[in-house]
Amino acid sequence: MKRDGIRMVILDWAGTTVDHGSMAPIAALQDLFARRGIELSHEDARRDMGLLKSDHIRAIVALPSVEAQWQDAVGRKPVPADVDALFDEFRPLQQAVIAQHSQLIDGVAAVSQEWQQSGIRIGTTTGYTREMLTPILLEAAAGGYSPDSSVCPEEVGAGRPAPWMVARNAQLLDGYPPSACVKIGDTVSDIEEGINAGMWTIGITRTGNLVGCDRATWQLLPAAEQQERLARAEQKLYDAGADFVAEDLPACSRLLQEIEKRLRAGGVRQI
């Protein structure tokens, strides 16, 4: 269907549409490294969130604090084969914890249906493999969120920040030109992915990885700490090149309207 203005939106999963605070990967990663006698901090676990999980594990292993603990625990520095072994062990750990952290974030079902009814097609990208994403897709559909397409890193040969998952979604959904499409996600790699695909980008703060709180924990934080965390996440996303930032997905509706206004005035995103 031809449509003036925005034609396609590409959404991330954990921290953007499901799993408030992107908690599932953290739990699985900390368990994974604890089995090797390595204490993985929340900060180190979240640092490269959004990457294909094997790439994420590789980045964690390369951190000086983790490499030093590995040396103490194993008696040598980690090698590439260790990353492969960690990823093989990570997969069932992640599968086990996903079921506990796949709930839709408040407002996602309603706003996604509203966008689709207006003619905007919704694609998705992720750092999860297809095996990991499948149960999330099923639970999301049961809750009222059914994107028009989903693409995983192994299906296109590379994860973020490469634009190939976005490109495959665009092909599946007839989503072009890139200046009429928007990438929305909660990590730096989400923003980089969208920029590399030539799209507008919107970063997500409150429900995402950079704030890093599930809904219950967030509600217990003092207002001053909430504002500090939001401001810090917002700055990181703008530093990464985001065109706009919002607290959650429903708050993106007004930003999509602003982008459409610019498009209809002849504006395009500068690549």
- The strand order across the widest sheet is 2-1-3-4-5
* Number of helices, counting only DSSP H or I runs of 4 residues or more: 12
Order of helices and strands: EHHHHHHEHHEHEHHEH
Q: How many β-strand stretches?
A: 5
- Structural class label: alpha/beta
**Gross CATH architecture of the largest domain:** 3-Layer(aba) Sandwich
What gyration radius follows from the Cα positions, in whole Å? 18 Å
Provide the fold topology:
Layout: E1 8-11, H1 24-34, H2 42-46, H3 53-61, H4 64-74, H5 80-98, H6 108-117, E2 121-124, H7 130-142, H8 164-173, E3 181-185, H9 188-196, E4 200-204, H10 215-220, H11 223-239, E5 244-246, H12 252-264
Parallel strand pairs: 1-2, 1-3, 3-4, 4-5
Helix pairs in contact: 1-5, 3-5, 5-7
Overall description:
The protein is of the alpha/beta class and 271 residues long. It folds into 2 domains: 8-22 and 103-264, Rossmann fold (3-Layer(aba) Sandwich), CATH 3.40.50.1000; 24-98, Putative phosphatase, domain 2 (DNA polymerase, domain 1). Helix 1 crosses helix 5 (80-98), helix 3 packs across helix 5 (80-98) and helix 5 (80-98) runs parallel beside helix 7 (130-142). The longest helix is centred in the first third of the chain and has 19 residues, at 80-98. The chain is built from 12 helices and 5 strands.
